[in-house]
From TrEMBL:
Official protein name in the record: Phytoene synthase
Keywords associated with the record: Transferase
Pfam families noted in UniProt: SQS_PSY
Organismal lineage: Bacteria, Pseudomonadati, Pseudomonadota, Alphaproteobacteria, Hyphomicrobiales
UniProt record, GO biological process: carotenoid biosynthetic process
Length: 285
């Protein structure tokens, strides 16, 4: 389960045209403000992430999804061996120019495989953290190299901001994920409220659901705090895009805290004025 927009995945040969983020999304806005080479590189990374995400979510039977993700693994290997197939051709320039690493692309595929192999239901905290690293922080590691951050703070930023954004997604999307048979809330706090073998339905109907969500929300907030400490110490130009993404997503987290967890849960979405405020604070360097 990622924040990427849905687009039908091909089970045989993906379309060569890159997918673009939805106009008006915080990702689209942040990327549009980048210099052209960085923007094009981020769109190529986005298209890859969206394609493998679509396989994991809507790629047909599980064995078909697994086979298609294996094809993506082989295509990434071919890219780094100098034999790119058409659907990864857009990544050739970004890989060369920004030093993007093969293991980060493969980590993203491994994260999607976690969703494709079986519906994730109440993973333990270590498994949830691994999932967040693969589907979010690995994307962050690719991104910070494109943004031009130094290696050590860039990797740390990817670690914290990726987890902050993904935990925010999980909290925002608990009802939508339950409709897919998925529950990303971790097992340990669910067990603490008496759910040793939870289902999505039993967890969302539990009167103490808010305690579990509040714990995950506090964890997400800790990652936001760590990410902001890193970004404050680095160049505003190199951190412009992650600042916008972090601030926009944090609005969702604040909205979730205010809304609470009692059913029926309305979907939290930042207002236009709040997002304009984010741009005014962080887009000008």
């Amino acid at each position: 389960m990622t924040a990427l927009a849905s687009q039908p995945a091909s089970q045989a040969e993906a379309a060569d045209a890159p997918a673009l983020p939805a106009a008006g999304s915080s990702f689209y806005t942040a990327m549009r403000l980048l210099p052209a080479e960085q923007r094009d590189a981020m769109y190529a990374v986005y298209a890859f992430c969206r394609a493998v995400d679509d396989v994991a979510d809507d790629g047909g039977a599980r064995e078909v999804r697994a086979a298609e993700l294996d094809r993506w693994r082989a295509d990434i290997d071919a890219l780094y061996a100098g034999r790119p197939v058409p659907r990864v051709q857009a990544l050739v320039g970004p890989v060369r120019q920004f030093g993007l690493r093969r293991e980060d692309f493969q980590a993203v595929i491994d994260g999607m495989a976690m969703d494709a192999e079986a519906d994730i239901v109440a993973p333990d905290s270590a498994t949830l953290d691994l999932y967040c690293d693969r589907v979010a922080s690995a994307v962050g590691r690719l991104s910070v190299r494109i943004f031009g951050l130094p290696e050590e703070p860039g990797v740390k930023l990817a670690h914290h901001l990726g987890r902050a954004l993904q935990l925010t997604n999980i909290l925002r999307d608990i009802d939508e994920d339950a409709e897919r048979g998925r529950l990303y809330l971790p097992a340990e706090p669910l067990a603490a409220i008496g759910l040793s073998h939870p289902t999505p339905e039993s967890a969302l109907a539990h009167p103490r659901l808010g305690e579990v969500c509040a714990r995950l929300l506090d964890e997400a907030q800790g990652h936001y705090d760590a990410a902001w400490a890193i970004m404050h110490a680095e160049s505003r130009r190199a951190t412009k895009a992650p600042r916008i993404m972090g601030a926009a997503y944090h609005l969702i987290l604040v909205g979730l805290r205010k809304r609470g967890w009692a059913a029926p849960r309305t979907r939290v979405k930042p207002g236009k004025l709040a997002l304009i405020g984010v741009l005014l604070r962080h887009a000008i360097v």
